[in-house]
Amino acid sequence: MFLGKSSEKQSAAKSKTKFSTYMKRYWQLYVLLAIPMIYLVVFKYAPMIYIQIAFKKYSIVQSVWEMPIAANHGFQYFIQAFQNPEFIRALRNTIVLNLLDLCIGFPIPIIFALILNELVFKRFKKAVQTIAYMPHFLSWVIIYGLAIQLFAPTTGLVNQAIEAMGGEAIPFLNDNFHWVWTYVFLGVWQSFGWNSIVYLAAIAGISPELYEAASVDGAGRFSKMWHITLPGIKPTIVILLIMAIGGILGSSFDRPFALQNNLVMNWAQVISTYVYQYGIKGLQFSLTTAVGLFQSVVGVFFLLMANWLSRKLGERGIW
Questions:
Q1: What is the pLDDT of residues 269-309, one digit of tens each?
Q2: Alpha-carbon distance 15 to 310, whole Å?
Q3: Are both 92 and 212 inside the same structural domain?
Q4: For the chain, what is the HEC assignment?
Q5: pLDDT tens-digit profile of 49-78?
Q6: Could you report the per-residue pLDDT of 100-124, keeping only the tens digit for each?
Q7: pLDDT exceeds 50 at position 2
Q8: 3 pLDDT band (50/70/90 cuts)?
Q9: Residue 60 belongs to a domain
Q10: Is residue 13 part of a domain?
């Protein structure tokens, strides 16, 4: 009995010694880790206490703890949002536009990265990369100004060229159907070069010996791309696809706000601009907090479902 207690004490002392030795050796890493952890706690997790505004009647003179609970057991503003036709329209527009971005904009950076990887002339490759990356650094206000110059019904360069060839001007920015495709095209053009960086980095990590072995076996460039490059970047594609699916219900504010106009508001109003219109301009903070909470919860649900499905199909997923 005494031997058992002494062995336990010895093992505990050894573990403490190992822990202290480990901390003396690597304490700098934990200090560096503390900086982003403090940032997350202060700017990401602490503000979450204000989520309860979605369930309370907002008052500017009361703290969030003193605000009274809203009607219907706190779900008054969720019910109010789903009874508002404008919110339903914004929800529909957000889902449709993000699905189009996903279906069209997601594969294009992959294709672009595969094509760049096959280019032989390095100077030409670098020039193409630089040109493709540049739109990412333009604000959406500048991109909308370029769109006006190119796609305006009467003065736009594209429509002038169409009319010069005997065709009719296309209302790229004034018609709902054409606006949606212009919106998607501008988004793909602005982001595909920058998004391809991740895939190019993944391609650079593929062992050159695989390509050499394939060349010995007589494989052509397309066969190498299909059987080596694509499988090599498949984990990266899956992770980014899961993250993209998780953002189906989310949308940036600057892009739809810059490109919208009164003629296309039936399709240009998305959740982010709806929150701006009703929350910031309309001072309905409880309503728009409820909308934002709903958006976040559904986004997390999509993320979890996409990750679960990827693991069921044999992929690693995010975790």
A1: 999 999 999 988 888 999 999 999 999 899 889 888 888 88
A2: 39
A3: yes
A4: CHHHHHHHHHHHHHHHHHHHHHHHHHHHHHHHHHHHHHHHHHHHHHHHHHHHHHHECCCCCCCCCCCCECCHHHCHHHHHHHCCHHHHHHHHHHHHHHHHHHHHHCHHHHHHHHHHHHCCCHHHHHHHHHHHHHHHHCCHHHHHHHHHHHHCCCCCHHHHHHHHCCCCCCCCCCCHHHHHHHHHHHHHHHHHHHHHHHHHHHHHCCCHHHHHHHHHCCCCHHHHHHHHHHHHHHHHHHHHHHHHHHCCCCCCCHHHHHHCCHHHHHHHCCHHHHHHHHHHHCCCHHHHHHHHHHHHHHHHHHHHHHHHHHHHCCCCCCC
A5: 999 999 999 988 888 899 999 999 899 999
A6: 999 999 999 999 999 998 888 888 9
A7: no
A8: very low
A9: no
A10: yes
* Tokens 């536009």 -> residue: 97
Q: Residue 316 — pLDDT band, cuts 50, 70, 90?
A: confident
Q: Please indicate, yes or no, whether residues 119 and 26 belong to a single structural domain of this protein.
A: no
Structural domain for 180, as ranges: 73-312
5 pLDDT band, cuts 50/70/90, is: low
Token duo for residue 57? 């009647």
Residue 316 CB partners (closer than 8 Å, separation 6+): 235, 238, 239, 310
Work out how many domains the chain is built from and give that number: 2
Q: What is the pTM of this model?
A: 0.86
What separation, in Å, do the N-terminal and C-terminal C-alpha atoms of the chain show? 45
